[in-house]
Amino acid sequence: MGNKRTPEIRFSGFTGEWEQRHIGNHAEILTGGTPKTQIKEYWEPSEIPWMSSGEVNKKRLSSTDNMISFLGFENSSARWVKENSILIALAGQGKTRGTVAINEIPLTTNQSIAAIVPKEELHYEFVFQSLEKRYEELRLISSGDGTRGGLNKQLVADVVIISPSIEEQIKIGDLFKQLDDIIALHQQELTTLKQTKQGFLQKMFPKEGESVPEVRFPGFTGEWEQRKFKDFISKAGKKNTMGENYPAYSVSNKVGLVSQSEQFDGSRLDNLDKTSYKLVNPNEFAYNPARINVGSIAFNDLNKTVIVSSLYVILKMSEELDNEFILQFIKSQFFIDEVRKNTEGSVREYLFFENFKNIKFPYTSSKDEQTKIGTFFKQLDDTIALHQRELDALQETKKAFLQKMFV
């Protein structure tokens, strides 16, 4: 941090250096408690909002997952935290420790949360944004190595906030609150789109034991069948024995085929022995037999041949199947359930080619209907991808402003 006391970007009309302030000197630090869970009367009736540390990941709390009774409040170390306080997880699973949130309602918390209740010279939104920016730093403070240990009231009180006048804090806080609201709106739209797609996947493929889907494009009337992939697939993936310089790819469960040059430092690929890699030609599928249960399968729509690790299974669908139709089925819960039925292995489960052949899928003999369904879901996927890119861009914009508008 050095001696820098002014931000790179600033609202007009504000000058002068920012000041160092220990949080403990300019805010009240509160910790909570948990009523005994074995005493039912401490939790019923549900009268007081009570927050656990995992809920800091909500970022802005207008409700809590749990409630306690007035009796539970009186017989525990839970304390009221007034609205617009900053809540920081002192401990918690995974990446929870060090995460901050704001409560939009008065509430109580468990003992794994410290509430920072700012005094007049600190604005809650400014403090929240400052601490959110310093997440990694807070984790290091808590343990010395960022991996184990926990925060406590004193460590939180000792954290230094570099801040301007309260008027400038308010303007900065308001700007980032508006950004957060826009990000939250985009996140909700993205979540709604994903839920919409899952709903259509459930309705546009027949349920188990049924021969027609609940929702269907007009003009199609025939019954569907339950078929196995063994009637429609062939094994592919010849070895790149000549060491041809095809681009090397991996399969991601989020985006499908990913160039290894984007994943790794390019120099790591310079001496790569490509002779053991497998070819994935256009319109072929590649999957990781140990990770297909989490969606690690991809379709080569790149219009070029690529190579992947010899660990992958490569297959090709027959002309009777529309590739996009099958790709969408593969993204459905029906497929995941079928994978679980056909994997083998005691410690790690694998789905080899012979197992894949036994997977059942809902089949309509109308290639036109398959294509319509595949195209419909592809358009939904494209819309989802666009919203995801917009959300990512907004989040990156916020990160950039945090770096430039805070000291």
From TrEMBL:
Q: Where is the Type I restriction modification DNA specificity domain?
A: 17-195, 223-395
* Source species, domain of life: Bacteria
Transmembrane portions of the chain: none
Q: Which InterPro entries match?
A: Restrct_endonuc_typeI_TRD (IPR000055), Restrct_endonuc_typeI_TRD_sf (IPR044946), Type-I_RS_S_subunit (IPR052021)
The Gene Ontology terms for molecular function here are: DNA binding; endonuclease activity
Kindly state which keywords UniProt assigns to this record, in alphabetical order: Coiled coil, DNA-binding, Endonuclease, Hydrolase, Nuclease, Restriction system
Gene Ontology biological-process annotations: DNA restriction-modification system
What is the originating organism of this protein? Bacillus subtilis
Q: Which PANTHER family match?
A: TYPE I RESTRICTION ENZYME MJAVIII SPECIFICITY SUBUNIT, TYPE-1 RESTRICTION ENZYME ECOKI SPECIFICITY PROTEIN
Q: Which family does it belong to?
A: Belongs to the type-I restriction system S methylase family.
Q: Which residues form a coiled coil?
A: 377-404
Name recorded for this polypeptide: Restriction endonuclease subunit S
